Amino acid sequence: MDDHSHEPDPEKRVTAPMQEFGGREVGIGAAVTLIGLLLAYVLPALVI
Fold it and tell me: Membrane-spanning regions, if any (predicted)?
């Protein structure tokens, strides 16, 4: 087994799913989703 004594206290580590997020991050996610949907569905429908 590896010795990870150089790592900080594992109880204090925070992984991404545990981190809080705010309205700014929600807005960015919604904008990215909207752009993706437009590129995937609306743009091809307009080209046909």
Answer: 26-47
Residue type, 31: A
Report the helix count and the strand count for the chain, using DSSP H and E: 2, 0
Give the pLDDT confidence of 3-40 residue by residue, as tens digits. Answer: 556 666 666 766 666 678 899 999 999 999 999 999 99
CA–CA distance, 36 with 28 (Å, rounded to integer): 12
Task: State how far the Cα of 5 lies from the Cα of 21, in Å rounded to an integer.
Answer: 31
Within 10 A of 6 (CB to CB), how many other CB atoms are there?
5
The Cα–Cα gap between 21 and 29 comes to 11
